[in-house]
Amino acid sequence: MTTTTATGRSRELAVAVVGVLVVVGLVAASVLVGTQPVTPTQVWHALASPTGTESDLVVSGVRLPRTLVAVGVGAALAVSGVLLQAVVRNPLAEPGLLGVSAGAGFAVAAGYVLLGLTAYRDTLWLALAGTAVGVVGVLGLARAGGSASSAAGDGPVRLVLAGVAVAAVLSAATSAVSMLSPSGFSQLARWSAGTFAGRDLPVALVTLAAVAAGVVLALSLVPGLRLLALGDDTAEALGTRVGLVRGLALLGVVVLCGAATAAAGPVAFVGLVVPQVLRLLVGHDPGRLLRGSLVAGPVLVLVADLVARTVIAPAEVSVGVVTAFVGAPVLIALALGHPRRLR
Amino acid sequence: MPRPLSRRPLLAAAIATAAALLAGCSSAGAAGTSTSDAPAASGGGDTRTVASAYGDVAVPEDPQRVAAVSYDTPWNLMGLGVTPVATLDYGPWIDEFSADQQAFVKGLPTVGTFGEINVEAVASATPDLIIGTVEEVDEATYAQLSAIAPTVVVGGGDRGAWQTTTEETAKAVGREARWKESKAAFEQTRDRLKTQYADVIAGNRWINFSLGDDASQFSVQQPTGATGNLLVNEMGMAYGPGVPTDHDPKGYASYPLEQLGSVFDGVTVALTFANADGSPNPGVQAVRDNPLFQRLPVAQSGHVYALSSSVTDYPSATAWLEELEQKVLAVL
Fold first, then answer.
1. Beta carbons of B213 and A180 less than 8 Å apart
2. Complete DSSP assignment for A162-186
3. pTM here?
4. ipTM of model
5. Pairing status of strand B206-211 against strand B217-221
6. What is the pairing mode between strands B206-211 and B116-117?
7. What is the predicted pLDDT for the residue at B24?
8. CA of B214, closest CA in chain A: separation in Å?
C-alpha cells in the first residue's frame, strides 16, 4: 500500500538516500579495484582532465565502462524482474529463468556466426529481437500447456518449466551455432556466462541510455500495475486497459533485457533475487519495488562483479556464476518453503 | 474408478530386465577383453619396444598404417614423411592451418574430434600403429586404443616441449634418421642466426604475446609453450623484465589488458601471431588496437611483428626462424 503520511514519506526518502550512497560507494570501489593499482587522484584526473596517461586509459577505457555496464545491467534486470512478476503474477518469473536471456543469447550468437555481425550496434538489435522472441515463446508455451491439462503442476511452476525448456533448447542451439566458427567459439563461450569485461565507454553509455528508456516506461506503468495486481476483472471494471498495460510492461522487459544481454551476456537470478528481497523489506507495491530495484539491482550486480574479479585474480570468474551462487539457493527456498506464496 | 495397475509385478519385471541387461553387458565385456588381450598385430613383421607415456609398447618395425588421433600429430608425421591413414576431424578449424597442411589431411578418414576420439572409427581404419599425445589421450582411452593396435602416447612434460615429443614420435614410426636430419638443419639455422644477429638478440628485450582468454585480456607465450620454447630456450632471447616468470605447464598466461603497461615494461621488440595465410588474427588485432597497447613504447616505435608460422616440430621451427630472420632480425 502506498504510504501517504509524512513520516512514511520521509522514512522512504531517508532509505532512498542511503541506498543511493551505497551505490555511489560501490561505483567508486569498482573503479578503484583491479590488478593495476589506481589512486583516487588518478581517477579524478582521468575524469576531469585526461591527458592519455596509463591510469587515464585504465580508468576511462577499462574500469569506468565496466562499472557503468554493471549499474545499467543491475537496474535493467531487477526492474524487468518486477515487471515480469507483475504481468504473469508469478514470483518465480525472471528473465534468466524464463529463457528470455537465452533468446537474446541465441540471436547474438547466430548473428555473429551466420552474418558476421560483431558491432555493438548490431548486437543490440539482435538482442532486442531475440528477447522478444523468447518472451513470446515462453508465454505461449506456458499458456498452451496450461489449457491442455493441469497435470504438469501449478501455474507458477508450469511457467518456470516452460522457461527452462525454452532456455535449454536455445542454449543448445547457441552452442551448435557457435561450433561453426572457431573464432566465435571461445568468445561466445566466455560471453554466455555473463561478463562486464571488454566494453568501452560508448557501449556503456548506449547501454545506460537504453536502460533509462526502459525504466521510464516501467515507472509510467506503476498505476496500471497496481490495478493489475487486483485481478484482471477488477482492474477492467476500474477502467484499466489490461491488455495495454501487460503489452507495454512486456515491451519494457524486452528493452531492458535486450540492452542488458547485449552488453554483458545473460546474467541470471538478478531479476529473481532483488524483487524477492525487496518484497520482504518494502512490501508488494509495484511503485516501491520498481524504485527499490533501481538501487538494489546495481548494488547486487556491483558486489557480484567485485567478487568476480577479485576472488581468483588476475583471472576472472563470470559474473553470471557469482549471481547463480547467490540466486540458486534463493530460488530453491522459494519453490520449497512457501507454497502458499506462489499462488 | 479403474484400478491402477498393480505396482509389484511391474517392479519385478523391471528388476529382471535390468539384471538380464547387466549380465549380457558384462559377459560381452568379458568376451571382449579375453579375445583382444594382445594388441592386434599386423600380418607378420618384427617389433621393437618404444617408451610411451603409459609404459613401453611393442610397435611394428616398419609401420604402414599410422593413425594420428591427436591435434598436432598429423603435422609431426608430415615432418617425418609419414602420411597417416586417419586423423581427427578439424571441422571449420582446418582453415587455421597452412595450405600445405590442409592438403596433407584432405580426404583422409576421420576418427572423432578434439577431445572425443571415436574408437570405432579408429578400428575401422585398421591401423598397425596409433599415435596420440598424453594431453588428449587418457588411460581409459589408451586401453581401448591398445586393443586395436599398438598405441604410442607421446608427451608428458610441458605443453610446448616439441623437441621431445617429435623425437618420441620419430622413434615410434621408425624415422629417427629423418628426425635427426631435420634437427641438424634446424640447429644449423639456429646457430647461424645466433651468431649473425648476436647484437640484435642481446641488445633487445623481447616478448611473444597473443589474444587472451577473453576480450578484456591478452596472453604471453611462456618458455613452456611451443613458440616461447623456441624463442627463449633455443634462441636465447630474453623477455622483458616485467614479464612474470612463474611458468604454467600449459604454455601461456592470460592477463587483464590493464596490465599491458607493467608486463610490457622494458620490452623493445614484440612478436605475435598472424593467421596461417598471413592475414591478421582478429583477436590479436583487437589487442593491438586497444589504446593501452598503442601507448606502449614498443608499439610507438613500430617494433611489433606478426609471424604466421606455427611451431610443432623441427621443420616448422626452422620455417619460423627463417620468417623471424626475414621480417624481424634483418630489419632491426
1. no
2. HHHHHHHHHHHHHHHHHTT-HHHHH
3. 0.79
4. 0.77
5. antiparallel
6. unpaired
7. 47
8. 6
